[in-house]
Amino acid sequence: MNFLCTHRLLRHFCAISCLLFLAPLLSHAQTPQLYSAVEDYLRTQTKGLPGKSTYSIGQLDRRTELSPCNAFEPFLPSGSRLWGKATVGVRCLGPSNWTIYLPVQVNVTGNYLISTRAMPAGYVVGATDVVVRSGDLSRLPVNVVTDQTQAIGKIVKNGFSAGQPVRGDLLVDPWAVQQGQNVRTVSNGPGFSVSSEGKALNNAIAGQVVQVRTASGQTVSGIARPGGIVEVSH
């Protein structure tokens, strides 16, 4: 009797051991499909990045045990971006319900601008003040400028030293209209065009609202345009 009980216990133990052994094998058998889904996701999501993008996917922890999955859904965690060191999540859509996260590295090689000379705050950037360089954009400051048209004619908000990458968030558009400037208000409509002189009451870049005091003392609002023009709607 004791022998029979012992034999049955051994059989149950072997069966449970086999199941425990097979569980990680099932998870590792899915690894190629999981990585393929993440690679397809990265290929699609990095198409819109400036320059040439390359990426690599980190290894899944070998101790991770995943239940069988028929479909994977990669996603980008909230607040993350595919730039430099990043993380991609993967959800199982069935029949199991689990989520894992994989480390990825996204490198973007492209052009960027550096300053050729020191530029103090308030300086207007000219064509000779910047030069194009090429490198890994993911290792540079956020908002690095990648095209000369994004910098030339802009005003430096904070000073740049020579050889520094030019950042778009440290540049501002020049004032189209400045406070106290004499401006011309223009109002156009079907069959008529009216213009008058006035004085700007605030600074405004092109496209912003500016208030103008006319010669008659009336205050009107309009849209600032280059050349000291203010478009007034009626």
UniProtKB/TrEMBL annotation:
Concerning InterPro entries, the annotation shows: Flagellar_FlgA, FlgA_N, SAF, SAF_FlgA
CDD domains in the record:
SAF_CpaB_FlgA_like (cd11614)
GO BP, sorted A to Z: bacterial-type flagellum assembly
Primary localisation category: periplasm
Its source organism is Candidatus Propionivibrio aalborgensis
Member of which family? Belongs to the FlgA family.
Q: Extract the signal peptide range.
A: 1-29
Where does the SAF domain lie?
A: 110-172
**Biological function:** Involved in the assembly process of the P-ring formation. It may associate with FlgF on the rod constituting a structure essential for the P-ring assembly or may act as a modulator protein for the P-ring assembly.
Q: Which GO terms describe its cellular component?
A: periplasmic space
- Lineage of the organism: Bacteria, Pseudomonadati, Pseudomonadota, Betaproteobacteria, Rhodocyclales
Name its cellular compartments.
Answer: Periplasm
The alphabetized UniProt keywords are: Bacterial flagellum biogenesis, Cell projection, Cilium, Flagellum, Periplasm, Signal
Short name of one Pfam family for this protein? ChapFlgA
Full protein name = Flagella basal body P-ring formation protein FlgA
